[in-house]
Batch of 2 targets.
Target 1
Amino acid sequence: MPQINTNKPTLLLVDDDAIIADSLEYVLSDEYQIERAVDRPSSFETLSKMKESPALALVDLGLPPDTHKPDEGLAVIRKISQMHPSTRVLVLSGQDNKKHVLQAKEDGAVDFIAKPCDIAEIRMRLKKQLEAGGGKAGESGIEGLIGSSQAIELLRMQIQQLADSPYSVLIEGESGTGKEVTARNLHRCSTRKREPFLTLNCAAFNGDLLESQLFGHTKGSFTGATETKKGFFEEAGSGTLLLDEVADLPLDLQAKLLRVLENGEFYRIGETKPRHASVRVLSATNKELAVVIRNGQFREDLYHRLSVLTVRVPSLHERSGDKVELLDYFKQQASEQILTFQLDDDALSLWNDYTFPGNVRELRNIVIRLSTKYPGQTIKPEVLKLEMTGPMQPGNKTSREDWLRRCLFSEEFQLDQMLKSVEKELVELAMQEHHGNVSKAASMLGVNRTTLYGRMDRFEEEK
């Protein structure tokens, strides 16, 4: 690997098109120390050799072996976010449909540049993200917690206080409040910040597969184990491991997790030789663990190990005044891709009164939908209400029947459009609730998995 010039910020360039990569390196090498990779394996190898986090990464989605799909590029984005949380990842790709743009940003990208793109535009976007990385919070500060309410200021203070503690932290809060953002900040503000940050969703896997994700396995140890694989406890090294949805961890695995927390000892599936972990464990849940313990679904001794320190992420209705700041923040993000919208005075009043039962996640999704549907337009309350997903509207002052009546008599009302909007929103909420697990989302919606796939394909075609 080339010797890094410390006078220049490092830019990791991941693109299999040699002509594009050579051109970019030629024009950008005067400003950046360029490190190159052509696919997922070579990018992972380059990242593992880096002693310092790259300031920026420019990643193509269409990488070998299947350059027509975004999967390989998205995997690279996730790996960079895990190993180098401070790195600002930009996507440079021709696969720029809305679904891929949103997924890339969900996985950690901060900007999406569609190919072909003028080099002056690429320079400007890189410079903007470089300044954002060093000027706002960078590697040592708190990022992504928007607002100035007393509740969010208290959360920031707790993060700073607990970041360097070696003890486990249990992060509690309603769905959509920002528990993973809080966990990332606990890592970012700690002395472990240059080590990997990994997230494992305990609700997304079952049985041997979840145990394998946690502890690893040897080749042939169970059906489908075609090669030896490290688990998250090994991959995280001396970094941070977030166990999301920890309340859904099966009881048999809870005992094994307890052993790791007590003495650092664990076993790969198929091995009898103990291994030792040095990772710091964070856990997150939107469930009341006391209730889960009473129901016999969670070990009380494990709870006490996980909750040596506890942080509660406030719901949005507790954060008075933050709704407008969050509105402006997500509009600014959307404006990098599309001309955004404005709320008139009545719609802004409605925005401030609405309870946002889905918290920050729901607020962000409303901003994305309004930006996509009504670019450059001024939104009135009647239009805003159609995007609000709660069963009761602002402050629960208005009944569902009254709200539906107002929608019915509005000039914009179309029954088919409203039914499609509600159906799509429910599917999106179910998928978010189960972190993309189609089987669990289908069960929540009361349909079979094939039916849900068909409806999701229809939504994509209608874009």
Target 2
Amino acid sequence: MQNAPALPDLECAPAWLLRALDQVRDEVYCVDVDNSSLLYANYPALQNLQYPLFRLRSLKFKDIFPEYTPDFFGRFFADSANTPNVCEAFEIRLLRRNGTRYTALFYILVSLFDQRPCYLLIGYDASMAKAAARAMELSESRYRAIISNIPGLIFQCSRVAEHKLNFQYLNEHCEDLLGVSSAKLYDCPDLFTEMMLLKDSEKFWHTLDESGKQLSMLNWQGQIHIAKWQDTKWISIRATPQRLLNGRILWDGVITNITDTKLKEIELTRSRAQLAELSAHIQRVKEEERTRIAREIHDDLGGNLTAAKMALGLLKRRFDDTNAVVREKIDYATHLLDRTIDSIHRIAADLRPSVLDFGLIAAIEWQAAEFERLSGIACHFHRSLEEIALDDTTSAAIFRIFQEALTNVSKHAQASEVRANLSVNHQSLYLHIADNGQGMKKSEQNKSDSFGIRGMTERVASLHGDLRIESEMGKGTHLFIQIPLEQKAGTEK
């Protein structure tokens, strides 16, 4: 039998061709199927297999392709031999010189040489691609698991007109939250915005405008009405915008049902408002009761004690100088009555200073003078008006706030000076109280047992005002109080 012509030796090919084959990224092999051997491998193939060409040419298929079987590989080449110049593809694992394996995807190019097929394998290392695909598949699986467990509607949308959205992605929670399937919402995205109550819809488009202009987080809460269930829900939308190459803004975010939270928040706000009203009512009743008790003490007890003192004076005149013991007892009783009357005046003033009857400014001036006299701390009071007409409840509350502020200074501040300023501007009353004491930490302002600060805060809240404290250790404390007057006050310059 005549020997088959030898296959071409690529080492004898033109140098430019070999250089070109070495420069390509793919691995190129020329194989002799009859002898199950390799005739040529380019530089990327040699580098990956870790063999020199002369060593590679002495190896058999089994040394490089450990999964090679004559039946499978042979049939493949036999079939390919019948269709020359046809490029096929197959995947096979290769064995490197160091014993490691990698998966490669090969294309086989079959040509005839003197009626004998010439096989050229062109392929690349697919192990990295397969690892990346597996990692991508795992990541996708994890992503879907996370998405499926998020209690909300994950979405991706863009704005295609002034009041029109277009959804690019909706997860499976769409119907659970909105009562509309994701397929229906893809086809008719207006269904979503049409669910919004009118006032909330206007706020949504405004918030969307701002988010798109500034590329800032979209954060919107509002109510939607779901006709299918005859139900109104509170929902929250949080989304991050990104600008696409075509200039359009794409939002990725989540829509959640916050009805329970919102109802609890509304109930909490209502309860706080009721507590504030109750606190204001208690303060008002307390001031009224203090006023009543102060007047009864002053008028009834004071009057009776004064009458008793006058009676003792008359009695004293009935005894001559020979009744020294009796006169001494009468003098002692008179002195005791004087002390009792002074105590009654002091207690009545503590309950409600009668000076409040002359107006808030007069009362604050009196309190500042009393504070300076009793504590030894200089107290300077300035005002931008001569008098301000307020109802009794408001006047009493502001006076008590000022009184409590001075009490805190005397107890805790270790100050040598206090300055207070009262002004009215834009239908609001402003009271600023500052000391030059040791100051206090932020944590001390919020302590649960800071009853003085809490009392001032509650009184200010009962007047729908605002109290702000600024303090720095070693630099004193400033209290800024703002009370809206509305129709409460009239001023006299």
